[in-house]
Amino acid sequence: MKKVFIVIALLLIAIVVIGLLLPKGYDVNRNIKIKASPAEIHSILGDLKNWKDNWGSWQGGDSSVVNTLGDITTGVGAYQSWKSKNGGGKVIFTKSDLTGIEYDIKFDRDSIICKSYIKYQESKDYTLVTWGISGDTPNPVLGGYLTLMMDPLISGTIESDLYFLNKAVMKNKN
Fold it and tell me: Residues 6 or more apart from 114 whose CB is under 8 A from it?
């Protein structure tokens, strides 16, 4: 029985030490080639009025989500907030031009803040659009383990949003 206790104690210590050594920062991104100019892409993506109808996959099928647009919906300072049975938050543009968009995502009264970005890189036949989210996990032990799970947790949403962005841009061109 004493050996079992020692093994369990050593496992717990190892879990804590490894958790403390794991990185706490994450940056998950995906990209897509869209046959359009940055201006065509930005004309849709740069207005928060377009977000819910075109790429609201981050809402995860939660029918209780209620979005509220801010006083301005384009450019630096544009924002929208949301509330649902699972909490709420706010998206605030901190950069918006023909090179891309950067925005803060604030969850539950600013307790968790993530940085997100959408970059446009124009080439001859298409624009490479990279959509990503980055941040730091606050918990010193569990945060490292959460960081390891961020890519599988977030990447599907980003891929879906890029797919629907491409669809919206192509529809707008026709």
Answer: 104, 105, 107, 133, 134, 135
CA distance 147 to 26: 6
Q: What are phi and psi of 106, to 5 degrees?
A: -115, 125
CA 142 – CA 135 distance, rounded (Å): 15
Write the pLDDT tens digit of every residue in 117-165: 999 999 999 999 999 999 888 788 888 888 888 899 889 989 999 999 9
Average pLDDT value for the chain: 88
CATH number of 2-173: 3.30.530.20
Q: How much is the pTM?
A: 0.84
Where do the domains of the chain lie? 2-173
Find tokens 């190892």 and name the residue: 14
How crowded is residue 80: how many other Cβ atoms within 10 Å of its Cβ?
19
Closest to 62 (Cα-Cα) out of 164, 165, 157: 157
What residues contact residue 161 under an 8 Å CB cut-off, 6+ apart? 55, 57, 58, 131
Query: Number of helices (H) and strands (E), helices first, in the chain?
Result: 4, 7
User: If you average pLDDT over residues 64-88, what whole number do you get?
Assistant: 90
